[in-house]
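Intended use. Records like the one below are meant for learning the mapping from a protein sequence to its folded structure. Do not use them to infer anything beyond what is encoded.
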Amino acid sequence: MSRSSPLRPALLLGTAVLVISALASKASEEQHTTITLPAAASIVGVSPFFSDVRLFNTSYTDDLLVTAVYRCFLGACGGGTPVLHILLHAREALAFNDVVADTFGAPDSAGGIEFDFDGDSEQLVVTSRLYSTVPEPTVGMFIPGLNGSAAHTRSVLTSIQNGGSPPGFRANAGVFNPGNSPVNVIFRIYDEVGVQRGSDVPRTVGAHSGAQVNAIFAAAGARDFESNNAVITVEATNAVFSYAAVIDNATSDPIFVVGASDGPSSPTTTPSRTGTLTRTVTRTMTSTPTASASPTVVTTPTITLTPSITLTPSITPTPSNTFTPSLTFTPSNTFTPSQTFTASLTPTITPTFTITPTASITPSGTATLTPSPTATPTPTGSSTATVTATATFTPTPPITNTFTFTPTSTVTPTPNPNHIVTVGPGMSFSETVTTITVGTTVEWDWAGALQHSTTSGTCTISNCTPDFLWDSGLHFGPFQFTRTFNTVGTFSYFCTAHGVAGMQGVVNVLPAPARAPARR
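Structure written out for the chain above:
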């Protein structure tokens, strides 16, 4: 993103040359002053940020010659130090939109700006707005120019937030060193009752340079600590300007916190706090009547604090499922068949039978035959015999069979051949380094309530850049995304919403193991 500035450096340089000689004699009689803007940026990519700067000369009569020096310490810092000479007429206000890219010609970088001039510090007012354009253009945050009295060896940053209801907040902290020598700086995070969270975060900062710690809670090892009222202390070997940016992850809107002077050095041990928080207030009032009968009240409160700290651990269960189904079959079978047979016999016999299984049959019948003795049968002759059979059926009770089966089975799920990486539930992947062989499919499974992605590419301390090998897009869980790796190599990836905050991973793809030769 590049925005035009109403005042170009080349024009300013030409104008400045004309007035330098006129202002030189007066400048030699005035004090030299530096106003420092500790943070300015022109960052493009997944999490873009830009700075618009405004200058104002408060004098009603005198022009002001200002030398602006851009001190890059993040991103694509080139080899040189951009310098700009600016002439501000009496009561003139100048605007520099996207000052880092358009005015200093240093896109995709961030740093501080020093404004040097000869005169009283109140003659120059420096203000700026640092804002984002993703997911929507934001209001941004106000960052003032600071004079030397705002630099401290011990400072404190308050109103710091981290986590909270998804997608929550994150915080960056930084310093700018206005001195001519490097300084050592230590950041420490404390909760609202003064207990340190995580570990120290040390940095070494060069002369006229700065350092910023993005996602400082993660850098201190306290990524999952949630607070809307944390405190960060900054200790330096020489005076530095300290600051913090608290960013709403849902809108990318930040607030800017300027470091305030801190108290004396902290004790070497952190007192433990147990018990129940109670407050005892004792007031002693002494009344001295006067002519107007108005008493004088002197109040001496005594406050005793005994805070109580309750820690709620986070437990991640690992479920184990065993299935033992029990099946019971109770069939009931009743057989009552009835069959009727009609047979024809020669001589003509027509018996009728009614049969039922398990029956007792008692047939009775009478047949009369009158054959001729020693008679020779004649083909045309006929005889008729009638046989009547009677069957008596005595049924048995209905048969009821009851079968009970109690099988015990073990359900063995089909194994998932993919390599699983869990996305979330916080702002991290379950594996930061995944090692597989060629041909393996990596499956990313979303968990938790935050919106995440798996996007191939790399991240710097302030910016993530995709390389377009894959991109799942931003999703809430549950969601799955897979990719099969058919090439040996190392593939970096990140979450487009939280990559700068440290949500990054690497897939190392190794050659497939060699197969043993077949025996003949």
